[in-house]
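Duplicate of #3305? Posting structure anyway:
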């Protein structure tokens, strides 16, 4: 009897001559890796089920001892092919799968896994429908920072708790007041930018659709959030580099 699990394909990497390693988000097991034999042959029957962002059912024989499973068969549930047809949408969806791979590493809490799985399906649909890319990026990063305990402090000065703020200090981890700003020599921000930065921290998946329709956040706000992320998480984002390479950022 084969094991079957519903997955969201996160990434595909070439492996040996015709094979690929598929990183997948399984509803039942969380983060999983599969070897997909012969997948790079043009007539491979498993080709479509292994495309990034596809939602598929994977058949395999679970090897508990191995971190790499062998994909046997499967069927496609949702292709999400529109995310491949547009470079910006592709980049935005890739940012999410990159963040997912990071946050699912070693994660075994069932409720969280199920919630993230369903939310990802919703998120992909919204990326198909909306081109508010800067809002997507802000939301995704804020969501990740919040989940991992690195959320920026945005409700008062992170140093002295004063309520009136005019700057962001990445090193201190949040907004700062004018006194602390002078002390820290952090850049002074426009009110609008602080507002956009703060709002992104307050949006949950339940309010995402309204947030996307509300307005386009400033591109500078995205850049500050990326800096905040890279400083506190200690890694650069491949999807962000991709956006630079293809000038997607200028279109945000
Ligand atoms: Zn202060």
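Output from current build:
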């Amino acid at each position: 009897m084969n094991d079957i699990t519903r997955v969201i394909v996160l990434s595909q990497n070439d492996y040996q001559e015709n094979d690929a390693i598929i990183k997948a988000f399984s509803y039942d097991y969380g983060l999983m890796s599969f070897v997909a034999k012969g997948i790079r042959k043009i007539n491979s029957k498993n080709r479509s089920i292994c495309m990034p962002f596809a939602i598929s059912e994977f058949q395999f024989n679970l090897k508990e001892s191995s971190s790499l499973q062998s994909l046997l068969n499967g069927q496609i549930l949702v292709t999400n092919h529109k995310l491949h047809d547009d470079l910006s949408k592709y980049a935005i969806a890739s940012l999410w799968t990159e963040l997912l791979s990071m946050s699912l590493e070693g994660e075994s809490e069932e409720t969280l896994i199920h919630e993230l799985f369903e939310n990802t399906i919703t998120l992909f649909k919204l990326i198909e429908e909306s081109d508010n890319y800067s809002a997507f990026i802000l939301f995704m990063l804020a969501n990740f920072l919040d989940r991992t305990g690195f959320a920026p402090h945005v409700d008062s000065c992170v140093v002295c708790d004063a309520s009136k703020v005019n700057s962001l200090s990445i090193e201190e981890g949040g907004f700062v007041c004018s006194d602390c700003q002078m002390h820290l020599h952090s850049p002074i921000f426009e009110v609008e930018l602080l507002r956009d930065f703060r709002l992104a921290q307050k949006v949950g998946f339940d309010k995402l659709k309204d947030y996307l329709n509300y307005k386009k956040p400033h591109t500078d706000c995205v850049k500050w959030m990326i800096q905040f992320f890279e400083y506190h998480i200690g890694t650069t984002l491949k999807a962000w580099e991709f956006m630079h390479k293809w000038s997607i950022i200028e279109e945000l």
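Confirmed duplicate; merging threads. The first strand starts at residue 3 and ends at 15. The mean pLDDT is 95.
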